[in-house]
Q: What sequence folds into this?
């Protein structure tokens, strides 16, 4: 897929990949050999009929292809941009055994963009109103998906969002250059046209509790999709110095609150000259690439394992390197160093080696005794993962949770320990992918529909 040259894109926040034109999309779609046993469908968490939507693209039937896509995937323009197809549907494409797999993700993006820009879909027909109300807590991928499904089933749906703009991680977590916000807003507006009510600035667990939603507000069921928004820190000396951010704060300030357009928008964000990013996932890549666009002269990414163990998407790692991010592997900070004013000036780092596999199945990083070095930096971003949002659990003792704070659910129905309350996405699994959250939401929607009919 064509993309902005690296030297140009690090000076703007515009989307990096430019998308297929119709001719290229049809040629790529024609590579699909229509397997009798399409493993790509099995590799998709929401079960998209991939051969069908690709075949329709190859035939030039773009509107029909978009309709086929939306039977299973309600957010294709988003998934086509941020989902790890190389680990899911494309990984099991038979053409990948001897060459490149069909570019399913690029084709998904193409057909979704065609629908949005050239042939906006008609509103999906909904079942007659059921007279039942469902509350959806959180407006990320899981919340948007479950709301759309339940609205089509005839239920009255209200989404409660803690921030001032709906979209969840799609709005606050993923940078504009990877996911333009106009796409998220288009999807949200489509929900509103379906009759879904969206209430922002409502922090369920503080402003309202689950009990109040069900007993006082009359909601027959509740879906919790609040994600994993509690950042993890390294718990090393100096972590409270000025100039150190969690990736959550750094990206939220930039994405949701437009800090990159300060002072037009009133959210400040330190534009470090020498920036260290700690982590090896997509959030670390997003943070490092954002720092470059904010004017950093040097951006280092420090990862305690090797490139082979990095959880980030291959294409995001490649783009980060093209843009000038320097990768340092088998390195872990052990102390943040500050000046007399309490500002970050350097990181003391230790070199690592790989040991035996840990619980993740990856080799455990083991410190090399006495092997330290100092890296001068005036800003650091900690991107080592997130824990589930704890607020709802703290105010709802009957909600059973795991030792690490995730909500315990039935795997098939997403039902929690409280009748009528369901949950899905990162609040259940920990940080995962957009499409996995959507898959859980679709299972939950079917179960909520059945629950409401059984408890009239």
A:
């Amino acid at each position: 897929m064509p993309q902005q040259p690296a030297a140009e894109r690090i000076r703007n926040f515009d989307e990096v990949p430019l998308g297929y034109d119709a001719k290229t999309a049809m040629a790529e779609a024609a590579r699909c050999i229509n397997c009798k046993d399409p493993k790509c469908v099995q590799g998709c968490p929401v079960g998209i009929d991939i051969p069908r939507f690709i075949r329709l693209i190859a035939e030039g039937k773009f509107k029909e292809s978009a309709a086929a896509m939306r039977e299973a995937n309600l957010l294709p323009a988003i998934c086509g941009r941020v989902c790890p197809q190389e680990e899911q549907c494309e990984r099991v494409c038979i053409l990948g055994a001897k060459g490149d797999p069909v570019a399913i993700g690029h084709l998904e993006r193409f057909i979704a963009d065609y629908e949005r820009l050239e042939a906006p879909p008609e509103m999906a027909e909904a079942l007659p109103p059921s007279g039942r109300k469902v509350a959806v807590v959180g407006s990320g991928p899981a919340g948007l998906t479950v709301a759309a499904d339940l609205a089509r089933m005839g239920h009255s749906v209200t989404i409660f969002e803690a921030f001032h703009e709906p979209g969840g991680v799609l709005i606050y977590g993923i940078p504009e250059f990877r996911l333009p916000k106009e796409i998220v807003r288009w999807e949200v507006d489509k929900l509103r046209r379906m009759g879904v009510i969206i209430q922002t600035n409502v922090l369920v667990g503080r402003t309202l509790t689950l009990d109040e939603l069900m007993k006082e507000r009359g909601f027959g069921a509740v879906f919790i999709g609040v994600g994993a928004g509690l950042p993890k820190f390294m718990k090393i000396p100096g972590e409270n110095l000025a100039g150190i951010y969690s990736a959550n704060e750094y990206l939220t300030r930039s994405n949701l609150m437009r800090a990159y357009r300060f002072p037009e928008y009133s959210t400040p964000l330190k534009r470090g000259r020498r920036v260290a990013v700690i982590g090896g996932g997509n959030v670390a890549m997003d943070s490092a690439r954002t720092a470059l666009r904010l004017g950093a002269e040097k951006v280092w990414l420090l990862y305690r394992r090797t490139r082979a163990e990095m959880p980030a998407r291959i294409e995001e790692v490649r783009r980060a390197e093209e843009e000038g991010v320097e990768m340092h592997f088998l390195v872990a900070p052990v102390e943040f160093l500050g000046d007399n004013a309490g500002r970050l000036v350097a990181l003391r780092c230790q070199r690592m080696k790989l040991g035996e596999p840990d619980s993740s199945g990856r080799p455990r990083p083991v410190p090399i005794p006495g092997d330290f070095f100092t890296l001068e930096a005036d800003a650091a971003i900690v991107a080592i993962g997130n824990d589930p949002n704890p607020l709802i659990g703290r105010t709802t003792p009957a909600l059973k949770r795991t030792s690490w704070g995730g909500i315990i659910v039935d795997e098939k129905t997403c039902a929690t320990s409280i009748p009528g309350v369901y949950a899905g996405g990162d609040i259940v699994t920990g940080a995962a992918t957009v499409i996995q959250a959507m898959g859980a939401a679709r299972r939950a929607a079917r179960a909520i529909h059945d629950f409401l009919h059984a408890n009239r």
